[in-house]
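Our consortium's second objective concerns turning raw sequence data into structural hypotheses that experimental partners can test. To show how far this objective has progressed, the report includes one record in full. It was chosen at random from the queue rather than selected for favorable results. The single chain below, 220 residues long, was entered without modification.
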Amino acid sequence: MAGDSAGELIGRVRGRVSVGAKGNRFLELLEGGRIPRERLSWLAGEEYRIVDSDRRSFALLAARYPEPPAGDFFLALAQGESQAFRLLHDFAAALGLGEKDLQAYEPQPLAQAYPAYLAQRALFGTAAEVALAMLTNLEEWGNYCARTASALRAQYGLSDEAIAFFTFFADSPPDFAAQATEVVAAGLAAGEAPADLARAARLLHDYEAAFWNSLATGLS
């Protein structure tokens, strides 16, 4: 991968992530209406921890890399997570969960591997690592959120307001891809190793898969 341009690296990593991607058992069960309502509470509880952690991670990255293009990119992501955090409470409320319930929820370890790794990279990694990881994971994450929203509406009768958290993430933010590509390009221009960036993207993708898999644990 030495000498790759940002576009070439992004395309290469996307291809590898796509080849390694497996089915999402939780979503398959959800689309069949076979997820118990209690397990939907898991989804709300896990996302409550994840979104709160991710917005702090993006804010930290914006502070570590304040100059454009990275500063604007990560600040926008932090603001987006703040908006999503508010929308998540509507989903939780539709399940009968309040703030105290979300705070009391005990998260599953593997479900929290994704935000833990993102926080690690926010503290010790580079802007380009995180930008590439977010960019290569975006399409799959957006598709999963769109499917979740559709299934919650069709199979569980939830309102548009209740599923707004998932529809929010179904579409990428304006200029997200262009900004992320700029951040990756800046990292490569500064001499960052493409293999290091690709590794971060692969790991973040695998940790997201662990999140979905943990939600399906024990379900037939």
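The partners drew two points from this record. The CA atoms of residues 6 and 185 lie 5 Å apart. The chain has a mean pLDDT of 95. Both points have been shared with the crystallography group to help prioritize constructs.
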